[in-house]
């Protein structure tokens, strides 16, 4: 029943060659959403899953970046803010896009799509694009310590996480000369504040005005983003082997970023972001700090400490994972990335535990199914009551349930 309903959501959100995250709130193609959606679609329609990824990479820029939004020209201007008129840029294919990126979970998605239905021709087509995506990050975003930075909270995918409160505090909010659309679909207490939005647009405009090259106001190394980057290298190694290329450079890169993360982003049982502009670790209680469990080369003692933190601070064996530790003062069970549980974040931690601690992975999978059974395919959930929040019929909530329940 739940699986049939999940497919129904994905079918309703399909736009011919890709899937919108939500018909109401997010009516275009989003980068990391498409990776999660492809992982779910692989379970019932590998053809759609391949199309999802190839459509997204069809909007890749010449420098290798994969924009976080690919705009559908058929959607009226103003349906989503900030739309193409704000970003003012197009991909070489001519389609209008944003100019920032999101966590590179796509190589993992491509690999999982291949596992669902082996297709070396698909791998041969997507591999150079996935490599170019990583090369962009190395060329434009890598610090001397070997870590990748993001230049906007939207790039983390966890937009208003309390982890960004300190680095964002120095960003001058722009006088609100814009009209938000999100709060016409979802109640204001469940979304970022107007003040957050004034900072988001100020940062995005400043980056845009450098031709999407430089950001001097916000630059952080996020553990989830770096995990995705490292996991992408692991997946690229596997893909390379299938298509007859050398997997070694990918294995080396995965090992290098894993040890840079362990050296620079780990403290007191959790991974944290580092503010590149001040050189300081931003100690916070974001569940993003548990996602490095996905890195196969993470040293065993860090794995054990992270699991201890997951159990003590995030109640990992009780079901879906709150995006921020409930005992922390910033925790808010309904406001977006400041506490609610999300299916994708829980899924990433589940993947990190599946082999290492199947006894802890199982309750996470059950928790995800319990949440959508109780509340439907909502965007996020109160981690304690499982009340649903954000939009309805949210694509990755449906897609990843298909993956865990298959
Ligand atoms: C800005 C589409 C996206 C997700 C992000 C989530 C939210 C956008 C917004 O929706 O961000 O990119 O308008 O709030 O935070 O993770 O990819 O689902």
UniProtKB/TrEMBL annotation:
Segment forming the signal sequence: none
Domain Mannosylglycerate hydrolase MGH1-like glycoside hydrolase: 26-397
Keywords: Glycosidase, Hydrolase
Pfam families: MGH1-like_GH (PF22422)
Gene3D superfamilies the UniProt entry points to: 1.50.10.10
Protein family (similarity comment): Belongs to the glycosyl hydrolase 63 family.
Full protein name: Glycogen debranching enzyme
Organism name: Nonomuraea roseoviolacea subsp. carminata
Lineage, uppermost ranks: Bacteria, Bacillati, Actinomycetota, Actinomycetes, Streptosporangiales
């Amino acid at each position: 029943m739940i699986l049939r309903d999940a497919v129904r959501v994905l079918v309703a959100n399909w736009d011919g060659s890709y899937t919108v995250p939500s018909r109401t709130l997010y009516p275009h193609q989003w980068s990391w959403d498409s990776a999660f959606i492809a992982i779910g679609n692989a379970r019932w329609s590998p053809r759609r899953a391949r199309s999802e990824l190839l459509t997204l990479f069809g909007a890749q820029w010449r420098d290798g970046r994969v924009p976080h939004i690919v705009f559908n020209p058929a959607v009226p201007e103003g349906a989503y803010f900030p739309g193409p008129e704000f970003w003012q840029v197009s991909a070489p294919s001519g389609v209008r896009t944003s100019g920032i990126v999101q966590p590179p979970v796509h190589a993992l998605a491509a690999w999982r799509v291949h596992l669902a239905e082996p297709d070396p021709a698909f791998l041969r087509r997507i591999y150079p694009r996935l490599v170019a995506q990583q090369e962009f990050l190395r060329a434009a975003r890598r610090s001397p310590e070997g870590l990748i930075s993001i230049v906007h909270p939207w790039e983390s995918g966890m937009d208003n996480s309390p982890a960004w409160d300190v680095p964002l505090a120095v960003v001058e909010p722009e006088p609100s000369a814009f009209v938000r659309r999100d709060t016409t679909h979802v109640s204001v207490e469940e979304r970022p504040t107007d003040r957050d939005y004034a900072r988001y647009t100020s940062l995005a405009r400043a980056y845009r005005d450098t031709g999407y090259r430089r950001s001097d106001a916000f630059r952080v190394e996020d553990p989830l983003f770096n995990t995705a980057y490292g996991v992408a290298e692991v997946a690229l190694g596997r893909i390379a082997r299938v298509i007859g290329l050398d997997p070694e450079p990918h294995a080396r890169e995965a090992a290098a970023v894993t040890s840079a993360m362990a050296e620079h982003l780990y403290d007191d049982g959790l991974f944290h972001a580092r503010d590149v502009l001040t050189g300081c670790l931003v100690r916070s209680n974001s569940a993003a700090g548990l996602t490095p469990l996905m890195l196969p080369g993470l040293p065993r003692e860090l794995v054990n400490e992270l699991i201890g933190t997951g159990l003590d601070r995030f109640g990992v064996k009780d079901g879906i994972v709150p995006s921020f530790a409930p005992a922390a003062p910033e925790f808010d069970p309904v406001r977006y990335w400041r506490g609610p549980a999300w299916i994708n974040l829980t899924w990433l931690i589940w993947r990190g535990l599946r082999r290492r601690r199947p006894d802890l992975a199982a309750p996470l999978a059950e928790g995800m199914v319990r949440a959508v059974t109780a509340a439907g395919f909502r965007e996020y959930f109160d981690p304690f009551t499982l009340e649903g929040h954000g939009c309805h019929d949210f694509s990755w909530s449906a897609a990843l349930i298909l993956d865990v329940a298959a």
